[in-house]
Amino acid sequence: MQNLSSQTTIAFKLVFPVFWVVFFSTIGLYLVLTEEGTMVSRLILLSIFVLGMLAYYLLSYSLKRVEMDDEFMYVGNYREMRRYSHDSIEKIVEKHRMLFPYITIYLHEAGIFGKKIVFKPGNQYKGFMEEHPELKAKVMTS
């Protein structure tokens, strides 16, 4: 079984939002509980916090960890893992969001994670696709 997801997926999925919330909550509490913060500084802080959480939601919230072997694809969200056969894959779309490449795997039928699985490809992705022509035939680039 090979991990096709990038090792940075856990940072995008778990570390970034925790750091973001803790950091801005601490600064926000400081500005609210002391007389240091003006209304403008509080609004700027709130705006930056909301924009960061929106960016997280749009870019990282849907990321999954994807592993594959010769017969199955294993998809997880760091809490649970599900197994899908290669036959359940309808198509694989390679695209870019902002600066990062993303892979979207569309399934024939919706599973527990929905009908599409999004992940950030790691170093082993290209090699695995070269070794499995039946999966490479399903790859589309947009």
Structure report:
The protein has one domain (1-142): PH-domain like, CATH 2.30.29. The model has no long low-confidence stretch (mean pLDDT 90). The protein is α+β, with helices and mostly antiparallel strands and 142 residues long. The chain is built from 4 helices and 8 strands, in the order βααββββββααβ. It has a 4-stranded antiparallel beta sheet, with no helix packed on it.
User: How are helices and strands ordered from N to C?
Assistant: EHHEEEEEEHHE
Measured distance between first and last alpha carbons: 27 Å
CATH topology: PH-domain like
Count the DSSP helices: 4
Neighbour order of strands in the largest sheet = 1-2-3-4
Look at the helices and sheets and give the structural class. alpha+beta
- Nearest-integer average pLDDT: 90
Number of domains: 1
**Molecular shape:** elongated
Main sheet summary? 4 strands, antiparallel
Content of β-strand:
25-35%
Spans of at least 5 consecutive residues with low confidence: none
CATH class term: Mainly Beta
Question: Nutshell version of this structure?
Answer:
By secondary structure, the protein is an alpha+beta fold. It is 40% helix and 32% strand. It has one domain (1-142): PH-domain like (Roll).
